[in-house]
Structures are given as C-alpha cells and as structure tokens.
Amino acid sequence: MAFxxxxxxxxxxxxxxxxxxxxxxxxxxxxxxxxEMEERSGGLYRSSAGSVYPxxxxxxxxxxxxxxxxxxxxxxxxxxxxxxxxEKDPEGVRRIWERAEKWEEWGHFMNPxxxxxxxPWMA
Length: 123
What we know:
3-stranded antiparallel sheet
C-alpha cells in the first residue's frame, strides 16, 4: 500500500467483476454492494455512488444483471448471461477478494489514532 497518496483498490474493469461476484451470492441493492466492498477491504476502500450505479446500469444494459423493485429499492441479481460472464474470469475474481483480505487485515491497524500518528511519515 502506498503512503502519501490514495492507493487504488480496483484496477480497470474490476468494479464490474466485483459487482458480478457479489451478486452471485444473492440479490443486493446498490448501497449493499458499496457497503460490502468497504467491509471486505477493512474500510480502506470506499466505493462511491458515482462508480457503482453507472456500473450497475451498464451491467443491466448488457443483460448481465436485472433489477427488481423490493421495498422501494432496486435489488439487482445476476442473469444467466451474468453468471456466464463471471465464469469467464475466475482468476480475476480470486485476485480481487485476495487483495480485499489483505486490505482488510491492514485496515485493522488503520484506526483514526494510528493515522494521526503516521501522518508526518505519510507526506
């Protein structure tokens, strides 16, 4: 992890793959997806609505996911085409969640007190 600048969690195209992977576990709404990505990284990665919702729209346009209104929220789930797309890159999925585990482990050490102590060395 790089100090002094914000490290990127996802490489190009990986948000898409991560969302498909999370939806393979069951239907979720956008906020749930954002929270789960944050939790899996130990709080070090925080997705934004500006990255997640356009990706969900793109996946829906590609017929890889479908949305359904549930309790006033759009819940997304994989289509058969989405499952097939996910199965094309199992190694990519594995890399994403292995990286998330490492970030989660690192995140346990990065509480607000630790960050304030480290700031002089992070510049």
